[in-house]
Amino acid sequence: MGSRADLGRALADFRTEKGLSQSALAELVGEDRAWVAKNEAGTRRVDAVELTRIAKALGVGLDEILDRAKLEHRLPDRPGGADV
């Protein structure tokens, strides 16, 4: 998987796609807005239980979040289609 920052960007992307503010997501998962902001900034480690709660609140699967985080981290393909 990518970095914490990649995961944070993926979480922020899903949240904004769902039309939720950080405060609204925080309320859905039983946390405060600062907790959401730190997760999205990649300044705290999100454990599996927390990530499951976030995914459920966002109405997406864990695999979708993790896949998007991987795509954020992926380097561009080399010419000719070979991955770096």
Report the β-strand fraction as a percent range. Answer: under 5%
Q: Helical region count?
A: 5
**What is the fold-level CATH name, i.e. the topology?**
434 Repressor (Amino-terminal Domain)
Order of helices and strands: HHHHH
Question: By CATH's scheme, which homologous superfamily applies?
Answer: lambda repressor-like DNA-binding domains
> What's the total count of β strands?
0
Q: Globular, elongated, flat, extended or rod-shaped: what is the shape? A: globular
Average the pLDDT over all residues and give the rounded result.
88
Structural class label: mainly alpha
| Span of the ends, CA to CA | 16 Å
The second-level CATH architecture is: Orthogonal Bundle
CATH class: Mainly Alpha
Protein name: XRE family transcriptional regulator
Pfam families: HTH_31
GO molecular function: DNA binding; DNA-binding transcription factor activity
Organism: Jiangella anatolica
Outline the structure in words.
It contains five helices and no strands. It is mainly alpha-helical and about 80 residues long. The protein has a single domain, classed as lambda repressor-like DNA-binding domains (434 Repressor (Amino-terminal Domain)). The protein is globular. About 20% of the residues are buried. Keywords: DNA-binding.
In short:
Residues 11-65 form the HTH cro/C1-type domain. The protein is mainly α and 84 residues long.
Topology:
Layout: H1 4-17, H2 22-29, H3 33-41, H4 48-58, H5 62-73
Helix pairs in contact: 1-3, 1-5, 2-3
